[in-house]
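Sample intake sheet
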Amino acid sequence: MGGRLTRVFRTFNVESRARREISKEKPSPAPRHPTSRLDDLADHPAIQEEIYRKDDRLLTLLKDVYVESRDPPVRVKDGGGEHLPCKQEEKRLTKLGHLGDLDVKKVPKGKISIVEALMLLNNHNLHPQIWTAEKIAVEYSLELKEVNSLLEFFIPFTVKEFPKETKKAIKAT
C-alpha cells in the first residue's frame, strides 16, 4: 500500500514540473583562465615561429647520444621454470597392512601415515614387550621422543563386549 501512495506523489503533475525545469535558463559556465585558451595562442605568428624553429645546440647534443640495445636471451617456457625450487624430502615406503589400497605409498622420513599409526598403536597395545618405543622408532624412521608421546597420548579404539549376565547385573543395580 505504501508503494502505491509514493507512486501517486511521484507521478503527480510530472509534465508541468518537467516543462518548468526545461524552460529555466541554463547556468553560464565559469570563466576560463586566459592561458588555457590555446586557440588564441596558435594565431600569433611569433609563437608559431618559436614552435617550428630548430635549436642547433639541442640538435648537436642529440647527435652525440648513441643508444645500443640488446634483446634479452630468449627463454623457452616449459611451465616448470615458474615454480620455486623446493627441498627434496627423503621418502620411505610405507608398511602396508590390510588397507594397502587406501593408504599412501610413500611417506617422508620422520612421518607416518594414518594406517601405519593405527597399526603401530594396535601392535603396541597387543604386544607391548615386542613392540617397544625403540623398535617402533627404528621401524618407522621416527624420533624416540615423538614415539613416546604418540604411545602415551593416543589410544586406538577398542571394542568390548559384555557378557549377557553382566548386562543384566548392570541394569538391576
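Comment: The chain has a mean pLDDT of 78. Strands lie at 91-93, 106-108.
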